[in-house]
């Protein structure tokens, strides 16, 4: 009777650990997908800024260039527009680097929790075998 009580307690503990891991895995997978989407959006923004930069750079310096500000357009010099596009592309690259490190952190946490669960299972197996 004592052995069955210990194994029932161990089973409940394992079940609880599995449930926690599953919830954490689902949550982490959702966060990773969100980070992937943000990375993709920033790649597109950066690419758009770079392509626009190349087009503006090729235009004549006397070409009138307008910047969109809300619902109006403001006349700007070519240098100002080029600088803004450079900044936009650089910010996108920086954001992508930050998101990549965040994604690595999430993957690392997921693997650590999986390893902890494996250790728990192994511990319980050896305890039940004795």
Please give a structural write-up.
A hairpin with a 2-residue loop joins strand 1 (65-69) and strand 2 (72-76). Helix content is 84%, strand content 8%. The protein has a two-stranded antiparallel sheet with strand order 1-2. It is built from two helices and two strands, in the order H-E-E-H. The protein has 130 residues and is mainly α.
Number of discrete helical segments: 2
| Largest sheet report | 2 strands, antiparallel
| Helix proportion | over 70%
Q: Please state the oligomeric state of the protein chains shown.
A: single chain
Average residue-wise pLDDT: 87
- Which runs of at least 5 residues are low in confidence (pLDDT < 50)? 1-5
Q: Could you say which overall geometry the principal axes of the C-alpha atoms support?
A: rod-shaped
Approximately how much beta-strand content do the residues carry? 5-15%
What gyration radius follows from the Cα positions, in whole Å? 27 Å
Sequence of strands across the biggest β-sheet: 1-2
Beta-strand segment tally: 2
Q: Secondary-structure element order, as H and E?
A: HEEH
| Amino- and carboxy-terminal Cα gap | 16 Å
- Counting helices, strands and paired strands, the structural category is mainly alpha
Concise overview:
It contains 2 helices and 2 strands, in the order αββα. The chain is mainly alpha-helical and 130 residues long.
Describe the SSE topology.
Blueprint: H1 2-58, E1 65-69, E2 72-76, H2 78-129
Antiparallel strand pairs: 1-2
List keywords for this structure.
2 strands; rod-shaped; 2 helices; mainly alpha; disordered N terminus; two-stranded antiparallel ribbon; 130 residues; 84% helix
């Amino acid at each position: 009777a004592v052995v069955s009580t210990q194994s029932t307690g161990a089973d409940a503990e394992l079940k609880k650990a599995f449930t926690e891991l599953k919830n954490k895995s689902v949550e982490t997978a959702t966060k990773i997908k969100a980070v992937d989407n943000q990375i993709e959006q920033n790649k597109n923004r950066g690419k758009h800024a770079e392509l626009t930069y190349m087009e503006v750079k090729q235009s004549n310096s006397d070409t009138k260039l307008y910047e969109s500000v809300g619902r109006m357009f403001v006349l700007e010099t070519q240098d100002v527009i080029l600088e803004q596009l450079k900044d936009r592309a650089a910010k996108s690259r920086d954001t992508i680097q930050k998101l990549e490190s965040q994604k690595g952190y999430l993957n690392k946490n997921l693997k650590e929790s999986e390893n902890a669960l494996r250790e728990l299972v192994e511990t319980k197996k050896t305890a039940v075998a004795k």
